[in-house]
Amino acid sequence: MAVWNKRRAFLGAVAALSLGIGLGRWFYRPRQLDDPWAKQTATTVRRLLPYLQIDEDGLARFAQDLLARDQHALLRRASAGDAQAETWLGQQFLLSSDFFWHGADEAKTVGYRTYYDPYELPCANPFAHWE
């Protein structure tokens, strides 16, 4: 009888562990590039900045970083045609890119550096010239 209880406990632990791993994998699955919010972000940035040559991989990373920061409400407003949200999205991409680091040169390809947040990394201001 004692062996039977140990076996039940073992099988219960294996089942609970499998369920936990399965649910964890489902909740924390990697975001796909075919995510509609990522497509919306890329389309909006390209439409706002048609005169720039934008690195596609960088634009995809920007969209992923934007989603990682839970900006769904902003993206929803931008997709609904809110000009203020679209403008913020374009500004955020430019500040997060190397556009201003290269002197706002429109001839160069714009690459994504990292998500710009002045509260997290204030020294990454592209307009600050430390002389």
Structural key phrases:
single chain, 131 residues, 2 domains, two-stranded parallel ribbon, 5 helices
Q: How many independent structural domains?
A: 2
Major β-sheet annotation: 2 strands, parallel
Mean pLDDT: 80
Structural class: mainly alpha
Summarize the amount of helix as a percent range.
Answer: 55-70%
Helices and strands, in order, run as HHEHHHE
Number of strands: 2
Rg: 22 Å
How is this structure best described in words?
The chain is mostly helical. The chain folds into two domains: about 1-30; about 35-125, no CATH class. It has five helices and two strands; from the N terminus they run ααβαααβ. The protein has a two-stranded parallel sheet with strand order 1-2. Helix 2 (about 35-50) packs across helix 4 (about 70-80), helix 2 packs across helix 5 (about 85-95) and helix 4 (about 70-80) crosses helix 5. The longest helix has 26 residues, at about 1-25. It is elongated.
